[in-house]
Q: What sequence folds into this?
């Protein structure tokens, strides 16, 4: 599977900062600014986007590790953009460099690891926990 993914592939996701994705709404803080969990989700989405078109049928990726810094607050009304670049492929393990920006500055950066999975097999294993 390693040869099917291209190091250097990039993905991007965007969203507006609204009351629904603030730290208050997520319960991750007490101020009405863009929530760290929302930024992380946007970064993960950018990573998914970076490789989605290159995955074989029946395959997907799941997030397994994040190391991110949220460096600046973004108020309601601004927009946020997250980018991800595939920087390493090690078998089924994928490593991405991730970053986030609002309309004024960079607000986050880090690395994100995902693993390629067979969707049916993964879901069956998860369902077996019931």
A:
């Amino acid at each position: 599977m390693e040869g099917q993914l291209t190091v250097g592939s990039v993905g991007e996701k965007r969203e507006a900062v609204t009351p629904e994705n603030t730290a208050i709404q997520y319960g991750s803080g007490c101020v009405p600014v863009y929530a760290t969990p929302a930024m992380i989700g946007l970064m993960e989405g950018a990573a998914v986007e970076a490789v989605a078109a290159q995955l074989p049928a029946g395959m997907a990726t799941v997030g397994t590790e994040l190391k991110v810094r949220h460096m600046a607050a973004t108020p309601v009304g601004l927009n946020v953009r997250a980018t991800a670049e595939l920087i390493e492929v090690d078998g089924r393990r994928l490593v991405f460099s991730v970053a986030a920006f609002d309309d004024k500055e960079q607000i986050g950066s880090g690395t994100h690891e995902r693993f390629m999975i067979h969707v049916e097999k993964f879901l069956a294993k998860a369902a077996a926990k019931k």
Q: What stands out?
A: The mean pLDDT is 96. The beta strands are 10-16, 59-70, 79-90, 93-102, 106-118.
